[in-house]
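Model it.
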Amino acid sequence: MSIILEQLTKRYEGHPVVNNVSLEIADGEFFVLLGSSGSGKTTILNLIAGLTELDHGRILLHGRDVTHLPTQQRRVGYVFQNYALFQYMTVGENIEFGLTVKKVPKAERHRRRDELLDLVGLSGLANRMPRQLSGGQQQRVALARALASQPDVLRLDEPLGALDAKIRVELRRSLKAIQRKLGITTILVTHDQEEAFDLADRIGVMSYGRLLEVGTPEELYQQPQTEFVATFLGTANLLVGRSHNGSVFVGPVQFPSTGEMLQTDDGGRVQVLFRPEDVALAPDTESLECPSLGQAEVEEISFGGSVERLRLCLPAIPGVRAISPPVAFGSASIRVDATRSPDQAARFPLAPGQKAWVGVRRIHTLAHPGLSFLIVTDGSLRAQAAIDLGAQIARLAHARVTLLGCGGSRADMKTHLQEARKQMGSGFASIHVWASEDSPAQAVAQLVERQPHDLVILGYHPQEDQRLAEEILQAGEHHLLLVLGPQSVPGKALICVAMGEPGKDDILFAGRLVRHLGAQATLLTVTSTPDPSESANQRALQYLESGARTLNALGVPAQTLIRTGQVQEEILAEDSAGKYDLLVLGAPLTLRRGEISLDGVVGRVLNRLNGHAALVVRSHYMGLRAPQFSRDEQRMKLQEVLQ
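Modeled.
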């Protein structure tokens, strides 16, 4: 193997931007790390090259352990997105720079330079200045410079990202041909899926510092194993169905079993994936020749050259939840993306507003992850209330549970966890116990770094535990259920929202949880002063009604309410008057340094809450990003590589 990465971990300000990544890349392989901005892919490149110090793990290049070697001894070539050429040097001098530093004889430098100029298609341009070249030509020079010292590994940091579409396609062909000719092991990072599909022998998909899946482009596109990869690669139609007697059902629609289908417990939930090209459209069901999801209305049509792209709107299918494309806020319908060839479009022409029957030729099934709970206990009475309520909710949701004991000696905590585990009983998707001598916040941070959870459940004393709640919210992407004392499963939820995108996240997760409890919900928004504008009141009402429809689609009966006055006072007044037993609040957005503070409305409400549980929902708009190198920093790092 050319590259072996063993459990790489890198943190910035305590947050893992590369999280326990292990990977093997074969000799001569063209490997692509694919992920969105901030996923950690560029940091992995910098760790391989020695440009960033590793916190934990090991790096082997061609059998050599280079974990602690300086950049200059790793024999790694580097190409940046922004060329990073020395503008005061000619093309030839740029290519020869690393060889000059290493005191390679002049004749050998010139020979190597001319070979590389010919290889990258720039023969005769050695005396040009970078500013006299196009962007594509400059990137070819950067590639030649990276290859000049004959590195064992070539690493490419989005090298085509700054170029226009036509030049990107041309350079992709050149890059692939050069890599094949030289047989050099290459690792490229990009967020461009088309680029990854075109270049890669294998792709590794990253998200939030984790390497989720590795496979060939065909494997990851046709047979992904996780929801993220299914929806991140290409366009995906993803619905929640169920398996029964060897078949897969989407509502009443049955798909016969195939070898590709996931085998689950009878009646278990599965995620059903079908790509746009797997969708069939016809004027009637008899013409489909495949299982039909129903009759849909055409919402959008766009021209894509070799294909026609359609967005279709299906009526809600009983018992089916859509994951991708996401359901429009306030709608119960299911959207389906489809593509057709020009010939298919000509045989059955469609326009927005027209109807068509929708069939599915092929599906792929994935395991439905369900919800994952982390229940925190320190052996106190408050913690016991969290265990009792958490166990009841987890059983109803058939959730995976981790019971975390922390704060005491490991031996005492293991004894406590064994007893708590017995009291919880059965009925969970899975249950694990974990003992830690660290503080609750540190223990939670360590566990969610290993494995993300949807919900942390914590026994909570108002005022005393505010800082702990802030630290736990800040530890990951999870939500937080605060249990103030013993109580039964909630039957009435008050969901407090402010209009905007984060409020939609609050409603969606609250709905996912509350639907398992069979509870009713009231959506509340508070205006600080009466607004004389009828349009403003109408917008608030429409927002709440859309949220209620979203909850109804999830199976949660919901009503809406607008109150006027001081926000925390109105929330507490409605909570008391309505006799609710679950209060849902949106977590405040992070401060400038990424910190979460509950000193505002949320904290004041929690401090005066009347004894029942509160769910604090963390919006995805609070996500943190890893720091990136500036252009000047890239140039400094480049000089380290070339020396």
